[in-house]
Amino acid sequence: MTDPIVCITNVKKIYGKKEVVKNISLSINQGEIFALLGHNGAGKSTLIKMLTGLIQKSSGQISINGIDVAPFQKNAKQQFSYLPEIMALYPHLTAKETLHFFAELQNIPEKNEDEVLEIVGLSDYKNQKVGDFSKGMTQRIGFAIALLPKSPLLILDEPTSGLDPFWAIQFKKVIKHLNEEGTTIVFASHILSEVEDLADRVGIMSDGELVALGNIQDLKRNAKDEVKIKVSFKGIQDVAELTNKLSYPIEVQKDSYILSCTYDEKLEALKALQSFENIKDIEIKEVTLEDIYHEILTKRYAMNA
Ligand SMILES: Nc1ncnc2c1ncn2[C@@H]1O[C@H](COP(=O)(O)OP(=O)(O)OP(=O)(O)O)[C@@H](O)[C@H]1O
Questions:
Q1: pLDDT one-digit tens code per residue, 237-261
Q2: Is 305 part of a structural domain of the chain?
Q3: Contacts from 149-152 at CB under 8 Å and sequence distance 24+?
Q4: Are residue 108 and residue 256 in the same domain, yes or no?
Q5: Which residues of the chain have a pLDDT value below 50?
Q6: With a cut of 0.85, is the ipTM above it?
Q7: Whose CA is nearest to atom 13 of ligand 1?
Q8: The organism sits in which domain of life (predicted)?
């Protein structure tokens, strides 16, 4: 078991009379990729802004590497690098000047500037003013700024928003690569396939609360009907024979049957199917993060209705 790099304990944020983050506690381990999911206004960015010390929490504790995080705490700021949801840049500076500005602020060697420009594919645009950049290019320069210090903890708020598919894939590759080299990643996202691809663990927020937390595989194991096996047969298959030999719920479709089982029953179900010599095709669909997200939030809305 690795030590947590981030500890969030009973954290709240209240704006006026509205509690937008409600008593959240969670730890993020060294070396993991942790994703925060949730609908618009769920409180993800607010939690991330408190984690980065950009805004003051109303109560609770946050520490990174054992150092308390709060606005204007230089020690805490040195522990991580942050890509905000919206980048505020000086529009009259070029890409190279922008990076140099941020590098100088943090005493970062100049060689890192060219390296990160290369990573985000902006080397050919280094002399262009960032004010003239497209949305995606602005996001890429923001990512380059976050990569400059080579921090052991990267906090990214919707890192691929505004990117075209090519650059979204490139960003994911960079994130995976950095993680393989030991960087801990915390990111918020709306893109469930991206989260499923990248994250070891997810936290799902709804109306300021953390309504689910866990390893994606465990969340899948807890979901109902984790695995659906679609089977089609050559010729006509007797339904009674099928239900006799298979002890799983079976749904009859036009030219196929859908078996529902748990993740742990999958192999057993496939073995049982082997006894049918007239199988034409088998398709397996495992529950996705999207299914889990939908199930959790639907249950929650039904509870609050
Ligand atoms: N400065 C502020 N003053 C008042 N309310 C705020 C402020 N910042 C955020 N909120 C409110 O807090 C709630 C959570 O907002 P937040 O931006 O954290 O959500 P989010 O999950 O990041 O949403 P999105 O996915 O749309 O970015 C929203 O109801 C928002 O209106």
A1: 888 888 888 888 898 888 899 999 8
A2: no
A3: 149/81, 149/106, 149/108, 149/112, 150/112, 151/79, 151/80, 151/81, 151/183, 152/5, 152/30, 152/79, 152/80, 152/182, 152/183, 152/184
A4: no
A5: none
A6: yes
A7: 41
A8: Bacteria
